[in-house]
Amino acid sequence: MSQSRNETLVCPRCGRQGTFTVWDSINADQDPDLKEKLLDETLFLWRCPHCGHQSYITFGTLYHDMERQFMLFFDHKDGDNDIAEDSFPIDEMFKQGDKHYKFRYVHGIRCLKEKIFIFEEGLSDIAIELIKYFIRRQVIKIKGTRPDYFDNKGIFFTERRHEEDNDELVFTVTRAEKVVSEFSVSMDLYEQCLQKMWLDERFAEHGTVKNVCYEWIDAKMKS
Ligand SMILES: [Zn+2]
């Protein structure tokens, strides 16, 4: 069940008070409407009941998809990803569930959406991050792009495009919240990354909460 609480906010425009609902947890199966609001970010919009002024209110939440078996501990703050911390043990209460459950720390709303898209397609986020890792390194060789091409840019998985003979995975390159380019890779590359992940003990799940991001992969590759 999704859990919420009400907070009293003071409107920055008219100075009067109103109530805002903060969702501490979201159950995607039971409350698909909440999931949609999370994805289009209207969940974080507060409209002053007196003057109609709209504010963007950020809050962390626990996102739970029971059907696809994943839990995301979401922190709205971007930029915490330089914490390339390894996994944390999972609380006993979570361990009782199915072994296939995935637990992730996620920082920033774009990363949260990406994780949802990845897991909803039944893909591995570690394999996806490996693709990004190799792309970041390869793009320099392929396009003769400057080594700093990806500095201050983020790569995000957006969709699995179903083609007739072979599916493609689509990624966007963003800078300062704006999409600056897009590229796709074949499922063959994904399968290769998946194989690498399975064969590499550094990427084992071990029933722990992980902060799977570029910095995490980078730290693993260097370890
Ligand atoms: Zn107001």
Number of strands: 12
Order of helices and strands: EEHEEEEEHEHHEEEHEH
Bound molecules: zinc ion
| Mean pLDDT across all amino acids | 86
Largest sheet: 7 strands, mixed
The radius of gyration computed from the alpha-carbon positions, rounded to a whole number of angstroms, is 19 Å
User: Which overall shape is indicated by the principal axes computed on the Cα atoms?
Assistant: globular
- Unreliable parts: 81-86
Terminal-residue CA separation: 40 Å
Question: What does this molecule look like?
Answer:
- Mean pLDDT is 86; it is low at 81-86.
- Helix 4 (125-143) packs across helix 5 (187-199).
- 21% of the residues are buried.
- The chain has helices spanning 32-39, 92-95, 109-120, 125-143, 187-199, 214-222; strands at 3-10, 17-27, 45-47, 54-56, 61-65, 70-75, 88-89, 102-107, 153-161, 168-175, 178-186, 208-210.
- It has 223 residues and is an alpha/beta fold.
- It is 29% helix and 33% strand.
- It has a seven-stranded mixed sheet with strand order 1-2-5-6-8-12-7, covered by helices on one side. Strands 9-10-11 form a three-stranded antiparallel sheet.
- The chain has a domain at 68-222.
- Zinc ion (ZN) binds at residues 11, 13-14, 16, 48, 50-51, 53.
